[in-house]
Amino acid sequence: MHASVAGQESWQEDVFRVLKQHGVKHVVYVPDIPHSTTIRLAETDREVNAVVLTTEEEGIGYLAGAWLGGERGALLMQSSGVGNCINTLALQSSGRFPLLMIVAMRGDWAESNPWQTPMGQATKKALNLMNVMTWHADSPKDVALLLHGAATMAFNGDHACAVLLGQRMMGKGNE
Question: Can you list the alpha helix ranges (DSSP code H) found in 22-132?
Fold first, then answer.
């Protein structure tokens, strides 16, 4: 990842700001460079539980439990982690709790790692097949608006929603 990508800090700070506006108290994640600013902000905020996961599907169960306890959360992951979540997404479908995911895309533009391309190309379709609504942000100016809309639908309608953060925003080789 290139730190000089224009607007990068701004959109990452927008992610955390929108999560806070929507009362998110739990940010669960597998460590990832595109989410690093959001993770750092969550880790330093006393009102937010930042929880590192060993695998992405753990986050779905964690967020179901948070919701049962009366609190909101969001799952941060890379598109390669979406494949790990497919079976666990049935929990949201059956339990009808809000699920907000923010997915840093790989394999959708200028990808340098061929291993990332298949899941990157299948992410949106796989999520949609599991009844997850998706929106794709390719411009930093779109992130806050799309995330606000997804959070509103998730938390007010008990939907599964994902904002896909396009690789163009992060620059080439965002590993």
Answer: 36-44, 57-68, 79-85, 89-95, 117-129
Alpha carbon 62 to its chain centroid, in Å, reads: 14
Distance from C-alpha of 101 to C-alpha of 77, rounded to nearest angstrom: 8
Query: For residues 157 and 100, is the Cβ–Cβ distance under 8 A?
Result: no
Is 139 a member of any domain? yes
124 found inside a domain? yes
The verdict on residue 2 lying in a domain is no
Per-residue pLDDT of the chain (175 residues; tens, 9 = 90+): 334 344 456 899 999 999 999 999 999 999 999 999 999 999 999 999 999 999 999 999 999 999 999 999 999 999 999 999 999 999 999 999 999 999 999 998 888 899 999 999 999 999 999 999 999 999 999 999 999 999 999 999 999 999 999 998 876 544 4
Range of the domain at 63: 8-170
Q: What's the whole-model pTM score?
A: 0.92
- Residue 160 vs residues 4, 47, 100: alpha-carbon distances, Å: 33, 24, 6
Assess if residue 117 is contained within a domain: yes
**CATH number of the domain that 113 lies in?**
3.40.50.970
Structural domain count of the chain: 1
Task: Report how far apart the first and last C-alpha atoms of the chain are (Å, whole number).
Answer: 6
